[in-house]
Amino acid sequence: MLNKLRICLYIVFLIPGAAAASEATVKQAMQKKYPSVPVENVTKTPIPGIYEVYAEGEVLYVDENVNYLIAGGRMIDTARKTDLTAERTRVLSAVKFDQLPLDLAFRKVQGNGARKIAYFTDPNCPYCKKLEPDLAKLDNVTIYIFLYPVLGPDSHEKAKAVWCAKDRVKVWDEWMLKGQPPKTAGTCDTPIEKILAFGRRKGITGTPTMFLADGERVKGAIPIEQLKKLVDGSR
Questions:
Q1: N-to-C CA span, the chain
Q2: DSSP class of residue 184?
Q3: Pure H helices in the chain
Q4: Which of 31, 45, 72, 228 has the fewest CB atoms within 10 Å distance of its CB?
Q5: pLDDT digits (tens, 9 = 90+) for 45-57
Q6: Is the link from the previous residue into 181 a cis peptide, with omega within 30 of 0?
Q7: What is the mean pLDDT of residues 2-28?
Q8: Residue 137 DSSP code
């Protein structure tokens, strides 16, 4: 981290007039140099001359001309002892629940289904299988399950078989909770390619990935108590 910080400070001293740039001009410079990278947001940082770029689910830092780019670094507010990169990633990676393509998911309703979660999952994902028993313990929740087979052809075939089943929830649970493979022929039309395209646009790079009712993105298999608090809306 210290090496990245030295690079960052070096950039600042190199470009004392960089603060005059706008977010729009930095975005244009970024898109010109990296035309294949979809830039979602550009914001000034607390460091003069350094801009935050959010692209493909990742926070990057650049100077005004994008002559220098820092990827994978963390910006720390030493006064507050706060990871600013983590804070901004949490905000920028959120997706409003009503902007999710819920019509491409199938629903699992537990209890009265009043609360809601969106869940991107691969049928061969070991972390998803670890998470599934905890998801089953949640009360009064509707789980929108998005089949997101990113682990290879077999995942894709299983996902199609689940979608084409008469009772998707039953077949899904039998596989994820009991290890009973889906027997349905995956020959019907499925929304899987649309889901994968949406996930790529939103930087969903792995499974499990969940979205809470407030839009916050949660990655990985988290402990059940933490999951309950997140679904309850308490942190």
A1: 28
A2: S
A3: 2-14, 23-33, 84-92, 126-136, 153-164, 168-178, 192-201, 224-232
A4: 72
A5: 999 899 999 988 8
A6: no
A7: 59
A8: T
Distance CA 201, CA 132 (A): 26
Distance of CA 90 to the CA centre of its chain: 9
pLDDT digits (tens, 9 = 90+) for 167-184: 999 999 999 999 999 988
Show the tokens assigned to 227: 């999951």
Class of CATH domain 2-92: alpha beta
The one-letter amino acid at 184: T
**Stated pTM of the model:** 0.79
CA-nearest of 217, 192, 213, 216 to 204 is 217
Is the CATH number of domain 97-232 3.40.30.10?
Answer: yes
Domain with CATH 3.40.30.10 in the chain: 97-232
Q: How far is CA 87 from CA 30, 75, 182, 209, in A?
A: 22, 10, 40, 18
